[in-house]
Design goal:
By secondary structure, this protein is α+β, with helices and mostly antiparallel strands. It has two domains: about 5-120; about 130-260, Ribosomal Protein S5, domain 2 (2-Layer Sandwich), CATH 3.30.230.30. Helix content is about 40%, strand content about 25%. The chain has helices at about 5-20, 80-90, 100-125, 130, 165-175, 175-180, 215-225, 245-260, and strands at about 25, 30-35, 40-50, 60-65, 140, 145-150, 150-160, 185-195, 200-205, 230-235. Strands 5, 6, 7, 8, 9 and 10 form a six-stranded antiparallel sheet that branches. Strand 2 (about 30-35) and strand 3 form a beta hairpin. The longest helix is centred in the middle third of the chain and has 27 residues, at about 100-125. About 35% of the residues are buried.
């Protein structure tokens, strides 16, 4: 038996001692285990170990199994969870060091966050009218929310006279508890200001907030609508299922509706 396998056996024995009821399957000699996630026992993870673990390569997440009787079974997409769990595994793995304990510790936070985001998205869909009645939303105009495969998108737009005002309103918007629970707060703005000598200065920019190319698409949209003095935001609450290119359709639709609702009527066709 190689040193790598000796370290693996010691790691599995430690896990069994810490979580005696959670290691549901351990196939010696095959490099395969199945284990329930601590604090989330309705989730079982099947993991394989390459021959060069832990010296060079991390374990591989083969399957994520959800308890069919648990309500979260309908919340998560299995393929997405496998990808997500593997990303967590890769993030905690460091060559020459075992990582399973750190992996399962990290999963507790990951699963909690994902559930919380889903609940917030559902709450927003049920009563988005209450969302825009709080102080951070004063002066904002909202689109109707769009929900697709458990992700919710909401467009918001407001009039601004300077970049300073735009940043102030954006920062205030992000203080709302529901906005803080979102996965992305994408934005774009186009502003005209007068300099001290009376010359017109224009500012236009965007922020993807982690949703690659979303901000630039929103900036292109408000440019086509020929709108100025506007800050437009699209908030996304991620529900655990990747939408592919459809997400950009929802971003554009909610952004456009919010801009129109805010009274920017030029070239809205």
């Amino acid at each position: 038996m190689s040193i790598d396998h000796e370290e693996l056996e010691q790691e599995l024995e430690t896990l069994e001692a810490i979580y005696p009821d959670l290691l549901s399957s351990r196939e010696k000699g095959t490099g395969l285990i199945a284990m329930k996630v601590p604090q989330h026992e309705y989730v079982t993870v099947r993991i394989s170990f390459p021959s060069n673990y832990p010296s060079k390569e991390p374990p591989h997440v083969l399957e994520v199994i959800m308890d069919s009787n648990h309500h979260a079974n309908e919340t998560f997409d299995r393929k997405y969870l496998i990808q997500l769990f593997q990303e967590v595994m890769d993030s905690v793995f460091h060559k020459e060091n075992v990582c399973l304990f750190d992996f399962f510790s990290e999963l507790d936070g990951v699963l909690y966050i994902e559930q919380d985001e889903e609940n917030e998205a559902n709450s927003l869909q049920e009563d988005h009218s209450k969302l825009i009645s709080t102080d951070p939303f004063e002066g904002w105009f909202a689109s109707d929310p769009i929900t697709d495969r458990k992700s919710t998108f909401l467009g918001l737009a407001t009039h601004v006279k300077s970049e300073e005002e735009a940043f102030m309103k954006l920062d205030l918007l992000k203080t709302d508890p529901k906005i803080r629970k979102s996965h992305h707060v994408m934005c774009a703005w186009r502003i005209k200001e007068l300099s001290n000598d009376g010359k017109e200065i224009t500012f236009q920019d965007s922020d993807d907030d982690g949703e690659t190319a979303a901000g630039s698409r929103m900036l292109h949209l408000i440019s086509l609508m020929d709108t100025w003095g506007v800050l437009v935001v699209v908030v996304r609450w991620f529900g655990g299922i990747h939408l592919g290119p459809d997400r950009f359709k929802h971003i554009n639709l909610t952004a456009r509706q919010a801009v129109i609702n805010a009274g920017f009527q030029r070239n809205t066709k």
